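hiii so my PI (J.) wants the whole complex modelled not just the main chain, which honestly fair. so below is everything: two entries, each one labled with what it is. i double checked the lines twice but i was tired so who knows lol
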Amino acid sequence: MDELDKKIVRAMQEDFPLVREPYKEIAREIGISEELLLERLKAFRQDGRIRKMGAVLQHRTAGFAANVLCAWEVPAERMDEIAAAMSRHPAVSHCYDRNVEPGWPYNLYTMIHGHSRPECEAIAQELGDACGVSKRAMLYSVKEWKKTSMKYFCE
Amino acid sequence: MLTAFDKKLLNLLQKQLPISPRPFADLAVQLDSDESTVLHRVMELKRDGYLRRVGPFFDSHRMGYKGTLVALRVKPEAMEQVAEAVNRYPGATHNYQREGEYNLWFTLLTPEDALCQRILAEIRALPGVEKMMNLVSRKKYKINVQFNLK
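here's the output for the full assembly
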């Protein structure tokens, strides 16, 4: 990441201009040509620095009123296989392997979205059954205190 | 209410906003529509709260940041103060009160491990914080928040 890359990231994490030529406007703010901005952004997407260029909906828009962070206890040697299988389910938005702690044996975390709690329960049951994993913790949210996109390079 | 056109637009927009001089014109071609119609509808959907964010989503690891999920057990009477103290860290991007033994869970992104450790020590020392787990992500298998509207 050179200085220009960082400048581009900082500019692109602000509100995206909803105009006919949004990249031209962003490029002007950064002080570079639109061609250079487009070139760098395409490279970012190509190499994975941008994992997605597009929109994220408010969950409620889609009627997904319930979500649960479901933590699983998975045998280490089956982690890749189980995580890949669970990731394929469209209701799973995030799937991470994490370290365990004393008294906390869960090592695989899936964020499951559903229209209701019973639906979340059913999806978790289905995922567990399909993978032969029965031990899980269902961490339902009670209150959202913060939900933002990360602002990089602003420390 | 979302129309059939809106749903097609939102499904498309969730997948990809083109990186091109006229991205909304490109989307319009795929929707059998025109640039003005698409652009105005996106503006309205944003205004009405259907869209959380439009733009690039960066890969934190490739940006040079490390992510962790932190679980706290907080005394109920201290919950609000602890939650607000966590919120003040820019790297704490998601912070949820949850059911269970550990009742406050947040994600933390930091460019340096020393900063992460300092923040965790500060939070652990807050009044009302009884226990803390630092659940570092070893591997990301999926991160894709996408809803197919039918």
